[in-house]
Write a structure and sequence with these properties.
Helix content: 40-55%
Number of helices: 22
Strand order of the largest sheet: 3-4-2-1-5
Structural class: alpha+beta
Strand content: 15-25%
Number of domains: 3
Shape: elongated
Radius of gyration: 33 Å
CATH topology of the largest domain: Beta Polymerase, domain 2
CATH architecture of the largest domain: 2-Layer Sandwich
Number of strands: 18
CATH class of the largest domain: Alpha Beta
Distance between the termini: 85 Å
Largest sheet: 5 strands, mixed
CATH superfamily of the largest domain: Beta Polymerase, domain 2
Length: 595
């Protein structure tokens, strides 16, 4: 009913309106206060809507104080079929409670659920605990539809954030519930109070959680549609190949969704919050002194659940949460010493591109070694010349998190395929840290240096055989669609038993990798160990042994021939002798004849 008609109705029926608004309920039998409040809200809603039909009504208690007060403002959402004003709000005292009633047209409400027409400002209460006053089944259907859409949005964000890991991470349904709630707090900080209270109660797990149940039902629907996989209570995302164009489109779409949320949510939610502040605190102006102070209160005094606690990365030692923070000494005592006493030493073994440490654990006169790698962001002007010089070759991943992600996923992929790689012991994406098995053996670079100093390099059977085996391994990895990205000889270890281990996969890729770069880097980087003069025969021996193995392992001869192109050779001309590069590139050009 329009406001003018509503005012005329009040003048004609003052006693009736007083009974509804003030909760006198004259001449009626005693009922429970909560049930009476619900009845009076619906009665008041009928006077608002007039002839229009109420499809559903829900109640949401903001509980802005730590201890819920009868004076706290609560919000009622009325979904009305064919409501001419489309969207209106009212504030009234009903049964002694401050009630903010939002009346919304059913078409508008359903568009808000379906695509965030109002940034979920009218439908947003469905992600919090709510009470259905009428139309319970309708509200439940809309709740599941809304949560289904929000889950898909969060999965898109995970794909963009972790493109390599996205099909391997395992997600608990709680992640979606908590992440959605925190996103609303980020848009409108005053929602922090009820959000933190809800999270605290959810973590206790003392009673069933209907809010989480809605996400579980939405996930079941998505599983039937083939958009997610469920396994032992975890959500897994099917692998989706995203082009750069698709990534940009998703990023822009996600950004556009934030605009209506940022615009409409504060408009709808500010009024109830201000009512609470006025109702519960006499010193209102002090509370509203600055928005910055309000935000600081939200950040410092509220206990929130980190949603990433419910997102896990698989490692050989089990699942590791993305939110987990690692204490090295605690980890070693729990996972290596198993509670026994032992001596722990940490030594620095590297530190230009990443911080690398060797952890030595002595237990019962036996030493165990663990390698710890902390990833650093590669930023600054010093990387500009390298990127410029390598123009036309693969782009280097420079962000620490991206490189760590690649290291994790490629280690698991190659291990699953039977290749020898160090076993990952622990991963902390938050601290950009990996603990992995230490491989005892000789670095291949050392063997190449010995070959360079040998008087008869072509007849050194051990090193040449190793180079051939490495070529075979890289070729077999290429047949899996994987490009390693960093194939320097330093990243190959030969253990005392003669087994070859591959290391360092932070530049590897299953999407759009350059296999020719792998071949070129291994050869030309190996060539920089050779003396500048009189080294053509050693260069030919190294290239011939490696390429023979690469072709034997199923490698493409065209990949090898491309390694002779200038766009690859010029990168290594900075530190490899021109005669060495020319000798190796000549062997590459003859790859078809070697096959």
């Amino acid at each position: 009913m329009p406001n003018a008609a509503y005012n005329r109705y009040i003048l004609r029926h003052p006693i009736t309106i007083r009974s509804i608004v003030m909760g006198d309920a004259l001449g009626t039998k005693q009922v429970e206060p909560e049930a009476e409040l619900h009845r009076l809200i619906l009665e008041f809603g009928k006077h608002i809507t007039g002839p229009a039909q109420i499809t559903a009504a829900s109640l949401f208690d903001y509980c802005c104080s730590e201890i819920p007060s009868p004076r706290s403002a609560i919000e009622a959402i009325l979904v009305i079929r064919d409501f001419p004003p489309r969207l209106m709000s009212y504030a009234r005292m009903i049964a002694g409670r401050t009630v903010v009633i939002v009346a919304v047209d059913q078409w508008v409400f359903e568009r808000d659920v379906e695509r965030g027409f109002l940034g979920e400002a009218s439908a947003g209460t469905l992600v919090f605990p709510y009470t259905a006053l009428s139309g319970k089944q309708y509200l439940h259907t809309q709740e599941v539809a809304l949560k289904k859409r929000l889950i898909l949005e969060l999965l898109e964000n995970l794909r963009l954030s972790f493109p390599e890991l996205s099909d391997r991470i395992k997600i608990k349904p709680e992640y979606f519930m908590y992440e959605v709630l925190l996103n609303r707090v980020r848009v409108f900080p005053p929602l922090a109070s009820c959000t933190s209270n809800f999270m605290r109660d959810s973590e206790r797990g003392e009673k069933p959680n209907p809010t989480l149940a809605g996400y579980i039902e939405a996930l079941a629907t998505l599983e039937k549609e083939g958009k997610v996989r469920m396994s032992q209570g975890y959500v897994m995302v099917p692998k989706v190949q995203l082009s750069e164009t698709q990534k940009s489109r998703i990023w822009l779409t996600n950004l556009s969704r934030m605009a209506p949320r940022t615009l409409f949510t504060p408009i709808f939610e500010m009024f109830p919050q201000l009512l609470n502040l006025f109702n519960q605190n006499t010193d209102v102006m002090q509370k509203l002194s600055t928005l910055g102070k309000w935000r600081r209160t939200v950040n410092l005094k509220r206990a929130f659940v980190d949603p990433q606690r419910y997102v896990f990365v698989p490692t050989p030692q089990g699942l590791v949460s993305l939110a987990e923070r690692i204490n090295i000494e605690t980890f070693v005592r729990d996972k290596v010493l198993h509670g026994e006493k032992g001596e722990i030493k940490i030594e620095t073994v590297g530190g230009m591109l990443n911080d690398v440490y060797l952890i030595k654990v002595n237990i019962r006169n036996e030493e165990k070694r663990i390698l710890m790698k902390r990833f650093k962001d590669w930023s600054g002007i010093k990387w500009f010349p390298l990127n410029l010089w390598s123009l036309g070759t693969p782009k280097f991943a420079v962000l620490a998190r991206t490189r760590l992600e690649k290291e994790c996923i490629m280690n698991e992929v190659l291990r699953d395929e039977g290749f020898n790689v160090p076993k990952m012991l622990h991963v902390s994406l938050g601290e950009r840290l990996i603990l992995m098995e230490y491989i005892n053996g000789e670095n291949l670079a050392n063997q190449i240096k010995k070959l360079a100093n040998s008087k008869t390099p072509r007849t050194d059977p051990t090193t040449l055989a190793t180079l051939t085996r490495v070529g075979e391994l890289i070729a077999k990895i290429h047949t899996l669609g994987v490009a390693l990205g960093d194939t320097k000889p330093e990243n190959v270890i030969v253990n005392p038993a003669g087994e070859i281990y591959l290391l360092d996969f932070e530049q590897a890729s299953r999407i759009g990798g350059d296999k020719t770069w792998d071949v070129a880097e291994f050869m030309y980087y190996a060539g920089h160990y050779l003396p500048p003069r009189h080294s053509e025969r050693e260069a030919e021996a190294i290239a011939l042994a490696f390429i023979t193995g690469y072709l034997r392992g199923g490698g493409d001869a065209n990949v090898v021939r491309k390694a002779s192109l200038a766009k690859y050779t010029r990168v290594f001309s900075l530190f490899t002798a021109p005669a060495v590069i020319m000798a190796m590139s000549k062997v590459c050009k003859e790859a078809k004849a070697l096959n």
